[in-house]
Amino acid sequence: xxxxxxxxxxxxxxxxxxxxxxxxxxxxxxxxxxxxxxxxxxxxxxxxxxxxxxxxxxxxxxxxxxxxxxxxxxxxxxxxxxxxxxxxxxxxxxxxxxxxxxxxxxxxxxxxxxxxxxxxxxxxxxxxxxxxxxxxxxxxxxxxxxxxxxxxxxxxxxxxxxxxxxxxxxxxxxxxxxxxxxxxxxxxxxxxxxxxxxxxxxxxxxxxxxxxxxxxxxxxxxxxxxxxxxxxxxxxxxxxxxxxxxxxxxxxxxx
Length: 255
Fold this sequence. Notes:
This protein is an alpha/beta fold.
């Protein structure tokens, strides 16, 4: 089942010390601001929940994992403050994942664009299917993946991030993403994905909780400045979206 709610859906279930956050939106699991805010808050709640050892992040359906930010909200931006607030959505979600005390395992079943690539990069371990191609298409509409850049570059390196960003109309397949370090494993289909996910998460959740907490801190060392950095990047994107070039590009896409 996939949600038909205009603002999307987000549900959390906890079983055997594993919390699963599942998000969905009728527009290929894209994120309106309200849903991003709920996601960031959910990571904070689970971070403080002592009955949770690890977190799984997944999306609804069999197709796209995440189509990034809400296009409707993007084209509705009228001033710098609105622009900054819009792009701060993914900044806040990624920072919530960064400071979350629990390790986060991503389940990526399909294509992923823009901010969705940022969410995958902010996971500590990602399992994906062969259908999980990725693309950063921001340059095609006159902006860039500035907010998610630190998270993506941290995972795949500057050279691969450059390639992914500058080839803005090209999909990179799941094996490219695995080779570069975004995905840990690529499975043939969603059935195999879920078998591997269950096996891996049960094993991970059985380890010493204190060791898992300490490992999370080690994995995110030297990112303490991201609290300010990502919001500064949101301001950059917010200004660019008001430019004449971007308005023209968005008009073409909306038509």
